[in-house]
Specification:
The protein is α/β, with parallel strands linked by helices. It has two domains: 260 residues, Acetylglutamate kinase-like (Carbamate kinase, 3-Layer(aba) Sandwich), CATH 3.40.1160; 83 residues, PUA domain (Archaeosine Trna-guanine Transglycosylase, Chain: A, domain 4, Roll), CATH 2.30.130. Helices cover 34% and strands 18% of the residues. The protein has eleven helices and 13 strands. Strand 3, helix 5 and strand 4 form a beta-alpha-beta unit. Helix 2 crosses helix 4, helix 3 packs across helix 4 and helix 6 packs parallel to helix 7. It starts with a strand and ends with a strand. Belongs to the glutamate 5-kinase family. Catalyzes the transfer of a phosphate group to glutamate to form L-glutamate 5-phosphate.
């Protein structure tokens, strides 16, 4: 572990009554400090702003739920970040706050600016503390939960490790509270589909559940990032993960993907257009030979994309093949479909194929 993204879930930093758990936050800050003192670079993705806001502001039940959350988040984010700032300062570390929305990951240039900022903070020994900007995010553009944000962040900063802290030990073969459910300690590409074991229930104070953690963990592992789903309520859990003694679920990483492919891997919800390819083009893309996508293999296109936008690739049966960065606009592609000796619409370096679903 050299660069680690740690996601701290709502149920980790809140008590059963929904109020902030300051002793748990302090413990996690102490554990992160120990990682820092061992030379590790750490990025925190933290939930908890709504819980901090809820303790100070009492709102009528009739208020719109989205507005209620925005108010609590806007107020609570101040207290949350001050809590981290004060606790880390006592441990000799500085932090920086970064609030993001899903839109921030859509544009490649904006994405690189954010990446450079976070890497700049890390180079100076500063801990970036990242959270979704709930005050401006609308439902359609919200992250599934902070597991998705953490997974995106890990890919962006080329982290080698992603730790998703929740209030259970990891992924079980059934509901964790049942005695016959057992913990799955290792997941690799040969592991059977774990979603069959998982109930699509959400946590008490967060938006997501184990199913989203599983999906994000699998996607991150496919990019070459080792992932741990672990119990953030357990004392010393981060050190146990570091020394290999933790009781948790670990996702074995695939070979590391290049940075542009990491950006594209999370672009399923950002694509601006779609192109359909024929069987010959599909075989070429999935062959052992490095292949870009040429107009000659395209049968149709739809949407409204410009150069640099993310576009989705489907086969002639409509099955999802992958994602890529458009080398030119849809209008320009429309004039080249099916033609030979044309510039690739998606260069191999900006092509991500779905191979780990």
């Amino acid at each position: 572990m050299q660069t680690c993204v740690i996601k701290i879930g709502s149920n980790v930093v809140t008590q059963e009554n929904g109020m902030p758990d300051f002793s748990r936050i302090r413990s996690l800050c102490t554990q992160v400090s120990l990682l820092k003192n061992k030379g590790k670079k750490v990025v925190l993705v933290t939930s908890g702003a709504v819980a901090f806001g809820r303790q100070h502001i009492h709102l009528p039940e009739k208020i719109n739920p989205v507005l209620k959350k925005q108010i609590w988040a806007a107020n609570g984010q101040i207290a949350l970040i001050h809590t981290y700032q004060n606790m880390f300062a006592e441990l000799g570390h500085s932090i920086a706050q970064i609030l993001v929305t899903k839109e921030d990951f859509r544009d490649r240039k904006h994405y690189l600016n954010m990446k450079n900022c976070i890497e700049g903070l890390l180079s100076q020994g500063i801990i970036p503390v990242i959270n979704e900007n709930d005050t401006v995010a609308i439902t359609e553009l919200m992250f599934t939960d902070n597991d998705e944000l953490a997974s995106l962040t890990a890919a962006m900063v080329n982290a080698d490790t992603l730790i998703l802290l929740t209030n259970v030990n990891g992924v079980y073969t059934g509901p964790p509270e049942l005695p016959d459910s057992t913990l799955i300690q290792m997941v690799d590409q040969l592991t059977q589909n774990l979603s069959n074991f998982i109930q699509a229930s959400k946590s008490s104070f967060g938006r997501g559940g184990m199913l989203t953690k599983l999906n994000m963990a699998k996607k991150s592992a496919n990019l070459g990032i080792q992932v741990f789903i672990a119990n953030g309520k357990k004392e010393g859990i981060l050190n146990e993960i570091l020394d290999g003694s933790a009781i948790c679920t670990r996702f074995d990483p695939s070979p590391i993907k290049h940075s542009p492919k990491k950006w594209l891997a999370h672009g399923e919800q950002y694509y601006k257009g779609e192109i359909m390819i024929n069987e010959g083009a599909k075989k070429a893309l999935f062959s052992n030979k490095i292949s870009s996508l040429l107009p000659v293999g395209i049968t149709s296109c739809s949407g409204d994309f410009e150069k640099g936008d993310i576009i989705r690739i489907v086969d002639d049966s409509g099955n999802r093949i992958g994602l890529g960065k458009a080398a030119y606009s849809m209008k320009a592609l429309g004039e080249k479909i099916g033609q030979k000796k044309q510039k690739p619409i998606i260069h191999y370096d900006y092509l991500y194929l779905f191979t780990y679903e």
